C-alpha cells in the first residue's frame, strides 16, 4: 500500500520504521539515542500512539540524524490532536509544500539573519498581518527549527484571545519547560496588526526578524536589511514583494 493511502498514524509509523532501517539501528539503539523507552518506540512503530508527542518526534529526528527537507517531512507527518491542552497553542501550522520562487532568496536571507542574530540565544520571527506573510513566516520557522534544532512557540495574534499578561506568562512557562529539557526555542509571532505590541513577548529573551509589507525603495528583490526601531528585540526588517 502506498504511504499516502495509509491512515495518519500508520503513515508516521511506516516512515519511522523506514528511517530506522536506513540508519541500521535496532529499536533498543534508537530508543537509547532518543532518550525514550523501547516500549514507547514500539508503540510508535506499530501506529498505536495516535498523537505522538512533538518532543518525542524531535528527539527521534535528531537521533536518526535527519536534516533538511527529510527532517521537516518527518516532523510534519504525525497527526495532531484537535484538542490537547496547551499543545495546539504553541504548535505552528505545517510547512507549505511549495513556496513562491521569488521568495526563495528571501527565505535564505531570513534564515541567515535569524541564525546569525540569535547567537546562542532564542530567535524570533515576527510577521505583520497580510497576504502571504504568514505562510512565509511559518516556512521560515520550520527551516530555522531544523537548522538550529529548536522547539517552536507559535503565537497567532490575529486569533489570540488571551490578555498580554496571561499570554506572556504561558509563553514563558512553555519556554522554561523546553529549557529544562535542554532545548532552545524559536518564537513565531504571526498576524501582528497596527497597534499590537509584541515587545512583552520579545522581552522574554528573544531576538528576531520582522517580516513586513511591501514598501517602495526596496533592494535585492525586496529584501530590506535595515535596523527596525519598533518592538524591543527586533533587529532586522525584511520586506516581501
From TrEMBL:
Family matches, as InterPro entries: Cro/C1-type_HTH, Lambda_DNA-bd_dom_sf
Pfam families listed in its UniProt record: HTH_31
Any one GO MF annotation of this record: DNA binding
Annotated signal sequence range: none
Domain HTH cro/C1-type: 16-71
Protein name: Transcriptional regulator with XRE-family HTH domain
Originating organism: Nonomuraea soli
